[in-house]
Amino acid sequence: MKKLFFLAACVSLMAASCTGNKNNNDNSAAAERDSLQRIIDNKDQELNEIMGTFNEIQDGFRRINEAEGRIAVADGNPESASNKEAIRENMEFIQSTMAQNRDMIAKLKDKLRTSSINADKLKETIDKLTQDLETQKQRIQELEIQLAEKDIVIAQQDEAINSLNNDVENLAAENNSKNQTVAAQDKQLNTAWFVFGTKSELKEQKILQNGDVLKSGNFNKDYFTKIDIRYDKVIKLYSKSAKLLTNHPAGSYKLIKDTKGQYMVEITNPTEFWSVSKYLVIQVR
Fold first, then answer.
1. What span, in angstroms and rounded, lies between the C-alpha atoms of 254 and 227?
2. Measured between alpha carbons, how far is 127 from 138 in angstroms, rounded to an integer?
3. How far apart are CA 238 and CA 260, in angstroms?
4. Fewest CB atoms within 10 A around its CB: which of 179, 204, 222, 245?
5. Is the pLDDT higher at 168 or at 224?
């Protein structure tokens, strides 16, 4: 009777241990999914703010173009006092709007410095903005020359325009550097490592110790192969016997055989498969 009681107690403890491990795995997976969702939400918010600033800058260019058109109309009779005043007012408006654009580009520059955006479309928009600015700069310079020839004194804005142009060029360079940094971070987020070997090989590399896998930090990390979990979904094992030693959710992968009867790991749900651990250890014979 005592033996039966002892066996029942052992079974109960083992069941409780398995339940605890499952809950820990579920909590870890949920925390990682929440973290990824926050990254996505933050990127969406940053992109909306950046594109809103771009729209304001482009609207400023549109209003400058309209003011140029009004100057062309008023320039029909430059001797007229009212026309001269209208030209001066429109040129002052152009100068003021360019200053506003310069401030908004500086604001955009600050946003991009701390953002995590990685979008080719954003770079294309910056390139287009730089091209528009250069075109507008040339038109304003030609207009100032025409007005000066007609003895209409307009404050020169070459320095401000050049400063604006330099700001946009610097912004494009910094954004390119930022994109490269974010791309590297994104690649790291999607990096995992796998290894397969016989029991003796795994013990030799301290990956398997006393029946436990990766329980200490002194295992040979160079023995692992690095992969990108977005693209590497099939791992060939070149063995007719295979057993996963690390924990990965059931249903997120399959152990299948090739035409030679050798096993392969097919990862059917990468996000779930790697949610518990970014290390995969497989024992083969």
1. 18
2. 17
3. 9
4. 222
5. 224
Residue type, 150: K
Concatenating the DSSP letter of every residue in the chain gives -HHHHHHHHHHHHHHHHHHHHHHHHHHHHHHHHHHHHHHHHHHHHHHHHHHHHHHHHHHHHHHHHHHHHHHHHHTTSTTSHHHHHHHHHHHHHHHHHHHHHHHHHHHHHHHHHT-----HHHHHHHHHHHHHHHHHHHHHHHHHHHHHHTT------HHHHHHHHHHHHHHHHHHHHHHHHHHHHHHHHTEEEEEEE-HHHHHHTTSEETTEES-STTS-GGGSEEEETTT--EEE--SS-EEE-S---TTSEEEEE-TTS-EEEEES-HHHHTSS-SEEEEEE-
- Report the mean per-residue pLDDT for the chain: 76
**Is 131 a residue whose pLDDT tops 70?**
yes
The Cα–Cα gap between 106 and 100 comes to 10
- At 47-71, the pLDDT tens digits run 777 777 778 887 887 888 787 777 7
What angle is formed at CA 274 by the lines to CA 269 and CA 278, rounded to 5 degrees? 155
Please classify residue 263 by burial: count the beta carbons closer than 10 Å to its beta carbon, then call 0-12 exposed, 13-18 middle and 19+ buried: buried
pTM given for the model: 0.39
Please name which of 203, 227, 226 lies closest in space to residue 216, comparing C-alpha atoms: 203
Beta bridge partners of 283: 197, 243
Compare 86 and 263 and report the one with higher pLDDT. 263
The pLDDT of residue 154 is above 70: no
Between CA 245 and CA 224 the distance in angstroms is: 14
